[in-house]
Amino acid sequence: MTYFKLTLLLALSPLLIFAQQNISGTVKDTEGNTLPNVSVGILHTTISQSTAEDGTFTLENIPVGEHQLVAHFVGYEKASVTINVTENAQLQHHFILKENTRELQQVEILGVEDQSYNNEYTFSATRTGTLIKDVPQSISTVTKELILDQQAYYLGDVVRNVAGVSQYTIYNDYTVRGYRNQDGQLVNGLKTAFNFWTQPIIGLYERVEVIKGPASALFANASPGGTINFVTKKPLTTTQGSASISGGSFNTYKANVDITGPLTKNEKLLYRFNTGYQTTDTFRDNSGGESFYVAPSLSFVPSDKTRFNVDMVYMKNNTVLDRGKPNYEGSTDLSETPINLSTSQPGDHLNNDNLYITFSWNQKINDWLSFNSSYLMFRSQSDLAEHRTNGKYISPSVLEMRYVERDEYENSDNITNYFVSKFNTGKVKHTLMFGMDYSAKVYDKYEKQARGEAQGVPNFDLDNPQYGNSNPNDYDFDPKRTIEKGTTAYTKNHTTGIYLQEQLQYKKLNVLLGVRQEFYKDIRVENGQQVAKDQTAFLPRLGLTYEITKTINAFGTYTEGFEPQDFGLNAEQNGGPFDPKKSNMWETGLKGDFFDGRLSATTSVYWITVNNILVQDPNDIDKLIQRGQEQSKGFEFEVNGQVTKNLSLTVNYAYNDAVITESDNPAEIGRQKENAPKNQAGFWAKYDFSQGTLKGLGLGFGGQYVGDRLTNTEGLVLDAYMLWDMAVYYNIGKFRISANLKNLTDETYYVGGYSYDRVFPGAPRNYTIGLNYTF
């Protein structure tokens, strides 16, 4: 009997295999060309597949019932069709996808309507509009949706979502893969002049990207750890808008309006207007202030071949320059002084204004050639008055002080022009780019200082802090520390680069080859005369990606970096001038897209070597010294996107071993770099209830871990910390009420630090309650 059953089963097995519900078909474009690597799947299930080289797909074991069959590929409009699957059905459907001009342009002209923690593509990393999984380098993204859910306002609020990035201080100052990033920021892929002392406001940005490792092959002088790129919100072809208000701890109040849509019936002229405001006292003594931004944008698309975009942003910060919390000399117990303690005095201020305008033009010349041009004008001005420590202790509890008044002016202009040619040679697809860019930066300041009691500045007693006990008008300003505008502080640099890049694809293999020739000139004022210094650099970039499966790519890259040390600010009186910083990176890893492209994951290992690093002289806070070499080796892991239609997730972990490998000081060799944690991790999850009595409710929960860090002072270590945050959302029609609670356990922690008299505490437990309206 058993033998009979087995024989019958074997005989019927072909029929049993066939007796399931399948659907097959092809995906083509409007010209009849087959499209490989298109994601085709059944909505709200795990059934999906990428099309083969001939554009075909087959989905098996589809449940009986009505479903949505979806085809999606970046650069094309998403297509869907309702299918009714009956028992043993063998269905066929053929998709024709229309090109979407809003995606994968060579210049990012128009906005995108996606609402996810996941971002599929990048313009800045290759300048050609490329899927992130096809870029042979780690790229991290924080989208506007995650920024909204976490009610973030400054850049420092969102770096917790990026593997390998942490705050070096509370300023516009970060550690990326172990290396300090002070001047490695872009707007729409172009160089900026953001003020160092105030963090950029991020409510006006579509997303924040971090391109890991040296990016000099595209952007000239770039930080070795990584480059931060802000992508401004662009106009949409649909009319929509949002308005929000919020309030919370430390007398913090915010408001934001964002509206967009077409200005003409034919949708050729589009607009976007974004504005926001915040006022806060913060948790620090004699601190706080207000800030706001206004960001209008226009896009003009007269035809499928021509596209223009203009962004203007005005950003203002009226605040106080917080120099950190002072502590007792030589004491590693940082709890001996409260986290709110500040040396700032009533009347201290830092008023910073940023204005920048971006212009982008994309011209399709013919089917295989396009021209792209972008220009950014950036102007920054600040007015400072501050009381700060002078880096000296009179006794373990008494600090010598200084008073500084400063006006700073920083301008930058950046333009890039390049051609992109897409063509095939046999089975090999080519994307060839050739271009030239130019950037110029000017810095100038007026400054005067008074130091110590001898010049009228009272000491600061940690046991009995006094505020408002002196008048800057009575100080005896030191003529040797007075800098007139246009004199020794005036610096100018400009750089011209010629670059060539080839992206070729052969079956499952993608190759990226890039070279750049850099011509850099630095100018400073010396004895009333301008003195120039010329430098050149040849910068290669090589990367490979290979499709292991339809959803997973392996990648590897080698790239070199070049970062001149500022010739003017590091002149002889500051210990310079210094040789340029040179770097290189090896990196390899895996990238994957899962759940019909809703979720992306990247894991990588890397090795970065940097020579000629500038650090503060431990014996003189006004001078710099140059180290020989540092190395950073590490591992990173990131996940972003949607696991289901209800659950959104972002997870990151980084292990980074950043050490000093060569130095004139033998005691430094092998030591961990300053403010560079070996371990850090973070996650954030949001679940939206879409059915039942809890429909409209959303819950968010997350955590951030940062390991211990060394400071610039030997023996002073900042302890590791773990923060927990949560949020509750409720949607009623077009309204959304949200409540965010940060630092649930009221952890005392420090985001960075220099020395005993300057460490930077993070915020205690705090809350924000917000109301958002969409229309």
Automatic annotation (TrEMBL):
Residues 1-19 form the signal peptide. Pfam families: CarbopepD_reg_2, Plug, TonB_dep_Rec_b-barrel. It is a multi-pass membrane protein. Residues 133-227 form the TonB-dependent receptor plug domain. It comes from the Bacteria. CDD domains: ligand_gated_channel. Residues 302-744 form the TonB-dependent receptor-like beta-barrel domain. Residues 325-346, 456-477 are annotated as: Disordered. Belongs to the TonB-dependent receptor family. Residues 329-346 have a biased composition (Polar residues). Keywords: Cell outer membrane, Ion transport, Iron, Iron transport, Membrane, Receptor, Signal, TonB box, Transmembrane, Transmembrane beta strand, Transport. This is TonB-dependent receptor. GO terms for biological process: siderophore transport. GO terms for cellular component: cell outer membrane. One of its GO terms (molecular function) is siderophore uptake transmembrane transporter activity. It is found in: Cell outer membrane.
